[in-house]
Write a structure and sequence with these properties.
The structure is a homotrimer of 306-residue chains. The first copy, chain A, contains eleven helices and twelve strands. Chain A has 306 residues and is α/β, with parallel strands linked by helices. Chains A, B, C: One of its GO terms (biological process) is fatty acid beta-oxidation.
């Protein structure tokens, strides 16, 4: 949905994502910008080029910020770096929860990167879709508590990241819509986007919103249960931290088993047909009609920016 | 639930429904009565004896009116003619959406025709039930956008037609109740009525309403999500047309694939056991106790009318 | 969750529960304490040591009161006696409905009896868990109308009994919380508790409440659909009776078939893996870490009481 062009990784690297960021990972040592959370001991920045991680060892919570300007489109790099950053935190016993938020103004994430889906070859589409699946599976089943601090617009793939979290806090800005609007681009959400939607807002609301490609303004998102809280924009992070505290009050083991019980069947549906889902995506996106409409859409975006 | 007696078609004709209406189809040429929608070019009436179709080629929308007085009971003829009319519109590229409404005052449809279920032979019951299934499958999976303009009472089978639509607009009249009230007649809704209910209002509300045979007044129907809008009676059709415009703003192909993704599993459940469902219905309805209670009920209705 | 210590029955007796209460069943003849319901003809008390049954033959409704002070913890005896009392009413054609309520002040039921789950041997844990399953299966699929008159706190196992009913009326007392709070004790609700929760309040609310071990105060319980009515404490029983009247207005046979249609799939999930579920429970509860945390918790409770 955005124009995040850039270097691509070879397909096989995705299977060994830990090998990818050897050079791009920035080991920073500055204190976190967010002095409000106390700075001090645990507060140091790390992460990668497109994912900024602000860990707070004292609380066991890290804030993970998407930084893929201008609109955090989910390029292959961003997807890969998100998975790596999440892996890192999951393997570090210090951390029990992660807040996902955006470092770009006014956009949480604009969703899938259309430039990854247009004018490439089938192998690239397959690689890209596998990375989309991977991010979803990792976040949806994460053993960590994930809270989405949604500080900007949150359509399509952005919404899927939010849906994978345990809890969603949305800034009360009428421009910050959230939802799965794929149909309006002439494409369809895959079945597992649908499953995540149904699990969150129910069958009927999903049926209607998915077909209409509806983007919910904050008040409606709250009402339909797509987000758990809507708060003034400057309170999104603090509210997300309060929510996090509620989730961290629960013993990890019992919470993780319960999370798995609630989500495993849905994740398994994708795991059972992961390759078929990739093939579906590739053959769909390779259609002339789809490529043409994506090109037209991208051209419009380029002109708007130019 | 009503007394719509009439000629019956042979069972095999149902398998080739296009052969049925050769003589009864009225090719009318009067302009549509609904001058508000502009009349003009595309506005001509067609349809059959019991289904009045007002097509508007310009908008790609047809209004389909049930006309089986006094209460649009779903006789075998009406079911058959509805399927044929829908088929006709689906096969005509001019049309993208259909509004389903009633031509009879105060009743959308009173539901299944009890005279089809009482005092006949098993073969007739089987034929009738197959026609009920067929209408549901065709409407539930229709590639067209279907909007129900519910301008009257909408119990049982009437509610099932409404549930098969993509969107439901109900007139705000306290007498226009909607719901699946089968249990109050001592019969049970089949599993696929239940599935459609659960998909629309959720498991708990369905469990309660189905067991109680509850008919929702408009405000409660809106609250539980059984209908999408409740509007003054004289705005039902115009609101349905506005809703239709929202659905037609979405590219057909993406919308149809999404609709199918949402509904296929539910329809497949019936398709997989369609014959068994017919046998269940026939053996249930053939029971002496059921036949007796239907006769008593019909007799009451006849006396009330007489 | 409570300290209801007492004599235990041998494991094999659970398989023939009718043999258990030969000596403990009290055949009482006093009129029901609840004079408001008229006393008179049908009103005599029967039941067992821990289950008080007040039958009203005229209305076909019995009130079943849990009497396992101080907090109606679901000891093996209470579970067994509940199943027996329910059996008795189901096999007596006089009765069509049962109201479940508490005879202990301020607590509907505190849930599973932790003393049954701590410091015993695996055979005992297996026996206990089978009894928990049995009560749930019997209540969830009961052919009778079951209405929960929740006149006190209703956590964990107490909530499961309420969820198995057809309808739930909760006293409007801010201390009477209801929900599945297992995670807060470091244990997890089994999948069929989860299924019952999802069927009642939906997937998302269950996901959140189950992980957080959230106990809903009355107003929130009503809003999320966990209970059907919240009324002043002194109107709980009368409201439950009014609700019962609505359910009894429906022909039994049609209602029972419909109830079965709504609930059979969920019950079958447990029935298919009942033994595995017992084994899961036993191996989980036998873990050193779980036994230790239960001991700590029980010790705290004992000190609080001492």
């Amino acid at each position: 949905m955005a124009l995040a062009l850039g270097v691509r990784f070879p397909a096989r690297a995705l299977l060994r994502p830990w090998s990818l960021l050897r050079d791009t990972t920035l080991g920073r040592s500055e204190p976190a910008a967010d002095g409000g959370r106390g700075g001090g001991d645990g507060a140091r920045l790390f992460g990668s080029q497109r994912v900024l991680v602000e860990p707070d060892a004292a609380s066991g919570v890290a804030v993970m910020k998407f930084r893929n300007p201008p609109v955090n489109s989910l390029s292959l790099e961003l997807l890969t770096e998100l998975v790596i950053s999440l892996d890192k935190l999951e393997n570090d016993k210090t951390f029990r929860g992660v807040i996902l938020t955006s470092d770009c103004p006014r956009v949480f994430s604009a969703g899938l990167d259309l430039t990854e889906m247009c004018g490439r070859n089938p192998a690239h589409y397959a690689e890209y879709w596998k990375a989309v699946q991977e991010l979803w599976l990792r976040t949806y089943l994460s053993s960590l508590v994930l809270v989405a601090a949604i500080n900007g617009a949150c359509p399509a793939g952005g919404c899927i990241i939010a849906l994978a979290c345990d809890c969603r806090v949305l800034a009360d800005n009428p421009k910050y819509h959230i939802g799965l609007n794929e149909t309006l681009l002439g494409i369809t959400a895959p079945f597992w986007f649908k499953d995540a939607y149904v699990n969150t807002i129910g069958h009927r609301a999903s049926e209607q919103a998915l077909q209409l490609g509806y983007l919910f303004p904050p008040s409606e998102a709250l009402q339909v249960g797509l987000v758990d809280q809507v708060v003034p924009e400057d309170q999104v992070l603090s509210t997300a931290l309060s929510e996090m505290a509620r989730w961290l009050a629960v013993p990890d083991h019992a919470r993780q088993l319960t999370k798995n019980m609630m989500r495993k069947a849905t994740a398994d549906r994708l795991l059972r047909q992961r390759d078929a889902d990739i093939q579906n995506f590739v053959s769909f996106i390779c259609r002339d009609s789809i490529q043409k409409s994506l090109q037209v859409y991208l051209e419009k975006l380029r002109q708007r920016k130019g």
